[in-house]
Amino acid sequence: MVLDLGALDAKELVLVAVAVAGLIPAITQRTEGARLFSLGYVLLVFGAVATNLEHVMLGEVLGLLEHVVGIGAAGVVFFLAAYSRRKRILEDDDPTTPGDDAADAVDGTAVADGGEVA
Q1: For residue 105, what is the enclosing H or E element?
Q2: 12: Cβ contacts below 8 Å, ≥ 6 apart
Q3: In the list 12, 19, 88, 106, which could disulfide-bond 48, CB 3.0-4.6 Å?
Q4: Cα(40)–Cα(80) distance, rounded to whole angstroms?
Q5: What is the DSSP string of 65-99?
Q6: What is the pLDDT along the chain (118 residues), one digit of tens a residue?
Q7: How many domains does the chain have?
Q8: What CA–CA distance (Å, rounded) separates 7 from 99?
Q9: Is residue 50 assigned to a domain?
Q10: What is the 3-state secondary structure (H, E, C) of 19-36?
C-alpha cells in the first residue's frame, strides 16, 4: 500500500493543527457545566482528522465518519449543550451567570437609570 501524501490539502492540514491546538485548553480548562461543549469540540477535531485521513486511506469510510460524527454528532452535542446552558440560566441555578448591571430590580420594578429609584 502506497500512501499518497501529495493528496493532502494544506488548508486541511492547518485546520487539524488549529483544532488540536484549540483542543488543549478546551479539555484542560473545562468545567462541569461545559462538558458537552468540550465533547462537541472533540467531535469537531475528530472530523478534521478524518478529513485529512480520507485522502490517504479508507476514503469512503472516513468521509462518512467525518460527516456523521465530525459534523452531525458535533452539531447535536452543541445543540444539547446550548439547550442545557440556557435551561440552567433560566432556572438561575448557574452561579457563573453575570448579573445585569444596567437594570437592577427594586421591589419587582426594574431600574434602568443607573440605580436611582423615582
Answers
A1: strand 104-106
A2: 48, 51, 52, 55
A3: 19
A4: 10
A5: HIIIIIIIIHHHHHHHHHHHHHHHHHTT--TTSPP
A6: 455 556 667 777 788 888 888 888 877 877 777 888 888 888 888 888 888 887 777 778 888 888 888 888 989 998 999 998 898 888 875 555 555 544 444 455 555 555 555 5
A7: 1
A8: 52
A9: yes
A10: HHHHHHHHHHCCCHHHHH
Element (H, E) at 61: helix 59-65
Structural domain includes residue 37: yes
Instruction: Decide if 114 is inside a domain.
Output: no
| Type of residue found at 63 | G
What is the model's pTM? 0.61
Reading the block at residue 23, the C-alpha cell is 483542543
**Alpha-carbon gap, residue 72 to 74, rounded angstroms:** 5
Q: Residue count of the chain, please give it.
A: 118
